[in-house]
Amino acid sequence: MSQKYSIGDVAKMLNMTTRAIRFYDQKDLVKPESIGENGYRYYGEEQIQKLELINYLRELNFSIKQIKQLLNDRKGSDSLLLLFQKQIEENDEQIADLKRRQTKLRHLAKTIATRKIDADGLTDIAKIMKKETRLANLRRKMWLFGFSILLIEVVGIFSAYQFKQSDALSVMWLSIAIMLILVLGLTAFLTKYYYDQVEYVCPNCGTKFIPALITFIFSAHTPKFRRLACPKCHQKSYCLEIAR
Q1: Claim: this prediction has a pTM higher than 0.70
Q2: Residue closest to 9 by CA, chosen among 35, 58, 48
Q3: Is-contact 200 241, C-beta < 8 A?
Q4: Which secondary structure element, helix H or strand E, spans residue 233, and what is its range?
Q5: Which of 97, 137, 206, 233 is the one with CA 20 to 30 A from 62?
Q6: CB contact at 8 A, 51 and 41
Q7: What are phi and psi of 41, to 5 degrees?
Q8: What is the pLDDT of residues 81-98, one digit of tens each?
Q9: Tell me, what DSSP letter sits at residue 219?
Q10: Alpha helices in the chain (DSSP H)
Q11: pLDDT, tens digit, for every residue of 212-224?
Q12: Distance between CA atoms of residues 87 and 73, nearest Å
């Protein structure tokens, strides 16, 4: 025998009022499973599930009339399935959007903390965000250029191997020389291009500075920091890389 619940129990279980449950009864949406001799309404699992569904549809701004039509429609379950699938897609989009916002907020908070921005400098946040976007785009370009250089090297090595197989040694060495000149030229160009686009912030005193090119080339670095000596406080540390 299935368990029965009083209207008060159902109201607590579903976090709704007894008045709302009686209202759905009056509108012929959810009738109690049985009514006791004392006039109390009792509900089973089927009625509880239907009340949960009605609450959800009301949250989606469905009218009582629309809900009644769905519940009475022979194809109502198919319509509800389409509705739920659509809602799931929208929820996934909202979750993805929130994750993107969280990532941006964390990145901005880290940037502000690293640059030691105080209350007087909060007006510069928009500029910081714009610069961070430019820097992210610049790094993506550098990855693309780096892949192109790697592709050139692979093609050059393959071509040199083919010439070796055909004993055309002079042509092979010529192709290797051309490949090396091309790769070194592109690497030098990209290094200078990247150098001209960035500057650094000292984590100790907050000074922005541009290191010498030779220092930039040979200093240790991570994707977002470079180990440099600050020209103001002379402390050598990993300085934050930002767009100029």
Answers
A1: no
A2: 48
A3: yes
A4: none
A5: 97
A6: no
A7: -85, 140
A8: 777 787 788 888 889 988
A9: S
A10: 7-14, 18-26, 45-59, 64-72, 76-115, 125-165, 169-195, 213-218
A11: 999 988 888 777 7
A12: 20
